[in-house]
Amino acid sequence: MCRSRSAMSIILTLGLFMMPTGISMAEESRYGLGKPATEADIKAWDIDIAPNGVGLPYGRGTVQQGATLYAVKCAACHGPTGTEGPNDRLVGGQGSLATDHPIKTIGSYWPYVTTLYDYIFRAMPFTAPQSLTPDEVYSLVAWLLHQNGIIEKDAVMDARTLPTIRMPNRDGFISDLRLDVLGR
User: Fold this and answer.
1) Domain check: are 67 and 123 in the same one?
2) DSSP readout, 160-175?
3) Quick check: 147 and 81 in contact, CB under 8 A?
4) Rounded to an integer, what distance in angstroms lies between the CA atom of residue 51 and that of residue 124?
5) Share of the chain above pLDDT 70, in %
6) 54 in the same domain as 25
7) Do both 56 and 119 map to the same domain?
8) Residue pair 125/136 in contact by the 8 Å Cβ criterion
9) How buried is residue 103: exposed, middle or buried, by Cβ count under 10 Å (0-12/13-18/19+)?
10) Which end of the chain is more exposed for a tag (fewer CB within 10 A), N or C?
11) Are 93 and 101 in contact (CB under 8 A)?
């Protein structure tokens, strides 16, 4: 009986290896499914920004440029000063996280300013994500940081200065050991 079970196992295993595992090349071209990713395809999706600034693009922006852009591209959703809504509040909330009614904003909650750049670049404005240029994103980040009292009005944000900004809630999160090990 052991031999027949063993033989049966071998037959089933071989049968599984011989079964088709996916769409054949003929079916792929027949139905137009998929294509190999090119270097350009991969580069277009490689837009993440690390907490230390690795991945930030060339560009620059000022608080004043950000104020103008914010009024045109952001105020309809976040209010003229970033506190009114109707969508997420972006300004204020400092000192509220330990209360019964925390206000999570850029100035009170976010641990890294590079995350702010990354989020705006990827997802904003809501009606046209990834439509902002690096200069526009740097400018918006500068204005939002100024509105939250984190940088001065004459500050210039770029790939060199942005990662040096220490956010008020930087120590409010547990360190990601993987980043520490990788030296990022």
Assistant:
1) yes
2) TTGGGPPPTTGGGS--
3) yes
4) 19
5) 78
6) no
7) yes
8) no
9) middle
10) N
11) no
Residues 29 and 107 in one domain: no
Across the strands, what pairs with 61?
157
Name the domain count of the chain.
2
CB neighbour class for 33 (10 Å; exposed up to 12, middle 13-18, buried from 19): exposed
Amino acid residing at 118: D
- What residue numbers bound the domain in which 19 lies? 2-36
Q: What pLDDT is stored for residue 42 in this prediction?
A: 81
Q: Tell me: do 11 and 49 sit in the same domain.
A: no
Q: Provide the sign of the torsion angle of the four alpha carbons 126, 127, 131, 134, taken in this order.
A: negative
Judgement on whether residues 18 and 102 belong to the same structural domain of the protein: no
Query: Please, which residues bridge with residue 60 across strands?
Result: 158
